[in-house]
Amino acid sequence: MSDGPTGERHPGLLVVWSGAAPTLQAFPIGAQGLVLGRELLGTTSDDRISRQHARVAIRDSAGTDPGVIRFGVTDLASRNGTFVSGQLLVERDISVTAPAVVRAGRTVAIVLDDLRRFREASVVMRGDTVVGPSTSQVWQAVESAAAASTHLLITGEDGVGKSRLGEHYAQQRKVREARFDPTVHAVALERVVGDAMTLILEAPGKLTAAHHEALGRLLDQREALRVVTTATQRLEALGMPAALAARLSARVVEVPPLRSRPEELSYLVAEAVKSAAPALSIHSSLIEVSLLRPWPGNVRELSAAVVRAAHEVAAAGKNNLRGEDLDTEAGYLMAGAPTINASVQPTMLGARRRRRSVSKADEN
Question: What does pTM read for this prediction?
Answer without folding.
Answer: 0.88
